[in-house]
């Protein structure tokens, strides 16, 4: 488990992803009354994990452009399946609230994992815990 | 941490824009009986930096409601014309109250996000404390 400290990397990536998602949600909420604003979203952490394990697109030739892992999922994209209000704005406050709570929970989960792994590491070093 | 800082800035821009909107609403309400007053409308736009949207919201130019002012009949009014009419204001109290409530809701949503991001960064800093 602690050979490569993968769990810290995973917890770090999860927390980073949650913070990025929260930032996108904040952008949507701040612009919830801006005419013509299109709501944005960011891929789930699950997608990110699945994608980085397969290390990007599979290519048939080496000369093909191989997008490095986690460029697509971490990038923001415009959510096109939403209904626009008369002024062309597609932000729904309810959806954004839900997404922000999801992000917060993911963040605190990541923090809990990080904290508890740190405690295990500390006690294995013999500094109490 | 960078993302969380950005979130705080974004939420702040939303709070600022919504409170500016609420200020315009209260201006309208205060002037609902001022003769010839045209209702002010808040507009929102995206903050641009070098023609690229940075995500923050800012208040756009204030527009005036161009609907025709109602004629009020009061011959004793100092501004009345020879037929006894003067221009009222086109402020509709119902619309203003609804607008104020909408501003309040958006303000609360931004505040909620601010609070949540603050909590997230606090828990991040808690790791250092041990």
Walkthrough of the structure:
The complex is a heterodimer of chains A (129) and B (130). Chain A is elongated, with a radius of gyration of 19 Å. Chain A has helices spanning 6-30, 45-54, 93-125; strands at residues 40-42, 76-78. Chain A has three helices and two strands, in the order H-E-H-E-H. In chain A, strands 1-2 form a two-stranded antiparallel sheet. Residues 69-73 of chain A have low confidence and may be disordered. The longest helix of chain A is centred in the last third of the chain and has 33 residues, at 93-125. In chain A, 53% of the residues lie in helices and 5% in strands. In chain A, helix 1 packs antiparallel against helix 3. By secondary structure, chain A is mostly helical. With 130 residues, chain B is an alpha+beta fold. Chain B contains two helices and six strands; from the N terminus they run αββββββα. In chain B, the strands form three sheets. A two-stranded antiparallel sheet of chain B has the order 1-4. In chain B, strands 2-3 form a two-stranded antiparallel sheet. In chain B, strands 5-6 form a two-stranded antiparallel ribbon. In chain B, a hairpin with a 2-residue loop joins strand 2 (44-49) and strand 3. Chain B starts with a helix and ends with a helix. The A-B interface holds A 15-16, 18-20, 22-23, 25-27, 29-35, 37, 93, 96-97, 100-101, 104, 107-108, 111, 114-115, 118 and B 1, 3-4, 6-7, 10-11, 13-14, 17-18, 21, 43-46, 55-57, 102, 105-106, 109-110, 112-113, 116-117, 119-120, 123-124, 126-127, 130.
Which pair has the most extensive contact? A-B, 30 and 35 residues
What series of H and E elements makes up the topology of chain B? HEEEEEEH
Strands in their spatial order, largest beta sheet of chain B: 1-4
Uncertain residue ranges of chain A: 69-73
Main beta sheet of chain B: strand number and arrangement?
2 strands, antiparallel
pLDDT averaged residue by residue of chain A: 81
Rg calculated over all Cα atoms of chain B: 22 Å
* Number of DSSP strand runs of chain A: 2
Distance between the termini of chain A: 18 Å
The dominant shape of chain A is: elongated
Sheet with most strands: strand arrangement of chain A: 1-2
Largest sheet of chain A: 2 strands, antiparallel
Task: Summarize the amount of helix of chain A as a percent range.
Answer: 40-55%
Determine the N-to-C terminus distance of chain B.
19 Å
Alpha plus pi helix count of chain A = 3
**Fraction in helix of chain B:** 40-55%
The percent range for strand residues of chain A is: under 5%
């Amino acid at each position: 488990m602690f050979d490569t400290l993968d769990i810290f990397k995973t917890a770090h990536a999860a927390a980073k992803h949650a913070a990025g998602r929260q930032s996108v949600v904040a952008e949507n909420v701040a612009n919830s009354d801006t005419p013509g604003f299109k709501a944005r979203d960011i891929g789930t952490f699950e997608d990110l994990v699945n994608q980085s394990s397969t290390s990007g697109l599979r290519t048939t030739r080496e000369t093909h452009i191989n997008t490095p892992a986690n460029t697509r999922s971490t990038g923001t994209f415009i959510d096109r399946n939403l209904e626009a209000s008369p002024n062309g704005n597609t932000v729904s406050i309810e959806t954004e609230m839900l997404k922000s709570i999801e992000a917060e929970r993911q963040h605190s989960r990541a923090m809990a994992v990080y904290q508890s792994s740190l405690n295990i590491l500390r006690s294995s070093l013999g500094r109490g815990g | 941490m960078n993302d969380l800082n950005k979130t705080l800035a974004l939420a702040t821009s939303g709070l600022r824009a919504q409170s500016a909107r609420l200020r315009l609403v209260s201006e309208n309400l205060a002037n609902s009986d001022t003769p010839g007053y045209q209702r002010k409308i808040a507009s929102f736009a995206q903050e641009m930096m070098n023609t690229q949207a940075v995500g923050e919201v800012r208040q756009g130019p204030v527009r005036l409601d161009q609907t025709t002012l109602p004629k009020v009949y009061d011959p004793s009014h100092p501004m009345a014309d020879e037929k006894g009419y003067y221009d009222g204001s086109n402020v509709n109290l119902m619309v203003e109250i609804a607008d104020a409530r909408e501003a309040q809701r958006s303000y609360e949503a931004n505040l909620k996000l601010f609070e949540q991001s603050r909590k997230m960064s606090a828990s991040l800093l808690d790791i250092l404390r041990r």
